[in-house]
Amino acid sequence: MHWHEVLKQLVEPNESKIVLLVADGLGGAPLSPGGKTELETAHTPNMDRLAQEGTLGMSIPVKPGITPGSGPGHLALFGYDPLEFVIGRGALEATGIGFELQPGDIAARGNFCTLDSQGRIVDRRAGRIPTAECRRLVEKLRTIRLPEVELFVEPVREHRFVLVLRGSGLGDQVNDTDPQATGVPPLEPQGNDPPSQKTAQLVAQFVSQARQLLAGEPQANGLTLRGFSARPNLPSYKELYGLRAAAVAVYPMYRGLARLVGMDLLGQPQNLQEQLETLRQHWPQYDFFFLHYKYTDSTGEDGNFEAKVEKIQELDAAVPHILELGPDVLIITGDHSTPSLLRSHSWHPVPVLLWAKTCRVDGCQSFGEQEALRGGLGQFEAQYLMPLALAHAGRLTKYGA
User: Fold this and answer.
1) What CATH number did the domain enclosing 254 receive?
2) Which of 98, 92, 122 is nearest to 110 (CA)?
3) Same domain (yes/no): 188, 269
4) Residue 380 near residue 333, CB atoms below 8 Å
5) How many domains would you assign to the chain?
6) Terminus of the chain with fewer CB atoms < 10 Å: N or C?
């Protein structure tokens, strides 16, 4: 029996409130052996107090040694096996901006990038151009026409956009054209089966026309595409956990993932303060809140150790505002690690803080990687975090006689 089926039999409703606060890319690494990580360097009195009152541990987003993308990382936190439930980034981005994917649609997440005179990538994110600039460039791309398919190009945020192909006989088994490196050209799209080969051929035509349209741009003169995918079919939070669940997120991708698992999207917050206000306004209406904080990831990807420390401290200052609402369970963690040292996602386990009145205090005095390694939760796969949250909220009855 799948453990989801077990959970559905054990779930019982009550009036408890659960908050899952996800600091994207929270886990880090020291800049030199024996040093402190970004989380350990940050001054976090509020999270440290919760660590003393709660329980710490380390979560493994997928499997040991596997570096996860944000999609699999969040899916695991939501209680879905990321190896069983696979969602491409394209579907996440499209759903996150409210685009209704139809059966057979293939979506991809696009990045505007900067190319040199030889067609090699100089900046994978085109200097994180303003969102208004992204909208202007998308208008150019909307003039592209391809045979046999309808094209949709939608702006997302900063350098990101969404491409959707609508037509018959398309597949989503197409490689990313982003090589995840600079100094090399974008990769050519290739399909792994006949339907995906058709998609790849159309995408190659789109990229070729886009390069011509963008050739005169000072920064965003190229593009890459990632996460080709169709809309997945996932069991919802209500179905699995009996929860009225809601998401408070700024970035479309995370709103998209929350929507795909049946969470309501609350408001259109643009920063942490607006997220906290949105949380407060909707507090009586829901049992579970997913609150997403992006900036610990983006600073890590920029390789800016000090900036990531500052963003962690900014998040710590928000914790009392959440506690004022009276959650029964508060979990603070990340979907993956993004060490500034590596400037990218990594395979390192992620620190987890679980605070509830029912916690066994484990003696940890602060929230950081070294303390979490000796915490009472131990090391566990992230997909089992939701059952722990439900148990501490009193929402799981006994299994068996």
Assistant:
1) 3.40.720.10
2) 92
3) no
4) no
5) 2
6) C
Domain closes at, from 197, 229, 261: 229
For tokens 């936190």, what's the residue? Answer: 77
* Residues 112 and 231: beta-carbon distance below 8 Å: no
The residue whose two tokens read 């499997």 is: 63
Strand ranges of the sheet holding 329-333, from the earlier edge strand across to the other edge: 264-265, 245-248, 288-293, 18-23, 329-333, 350-356, 55-60, 378-381
**How many Å apart are CA 287 and CA 266, to the nearest integer?**
14
Whose structure tokens read 């809309």?
231
Same domain, 45 and 175: no
In the structure encoding, which two tokens stand for residue 393, read together? Answer: 């909220």
Distance between CA atoms of residues 173 and 196, nearest Å: 5
- Taking the C-alpha atoms of 131, 135, 140 and 145 in order, what is their torsion angle to the nearest 10 degrees? 120
Which string of DSSP letters, residue by residue, matches 272-328?
HHHHHHHHHHHGGG-SEEEEEE-HHHHHHHTT-HHHHHHHHHHHHHHHHHHHTT--S
What gap in Å lies between CA 181 and CA 184, rounded to an integer? Answer: 7
pLDDT digits 0-9 by tens, 13-41: 999 999 999 999 999 999 999 999 999 99
- CA-based nearest residue to 357, from 319, 384, 330: 330
Q: How far apart are the first and last CA of the chain?
A: 17
In order of 65, 169, 251, 253, the CA distances from 294 in angstroms are 23, 36, 8, 11
The residue out of 179, 203, 229 marking a domain boundary is 229
Domain of 197, in residue numbers: 93-229
At 356, which helix (H) or strand (E)?
strand 350-356
Residues of the chain with pLDDT under 70: none
Residue 337's nearest CA partner among 25, 15, 36 is 25
Using CA atoms, how far apart are residues 390 and 240, in angstroms rounded to an integer? 11
Token reading at 22: 């996800």
Q: Return the sign of the alpha-carbon dihedral for residues 180, 338, 97, 387.
A: positive
pLDDT in tens, 63-116: 999 999 988 999 999 999 999 998 888 988 898 888 888 889 999 999 999 999
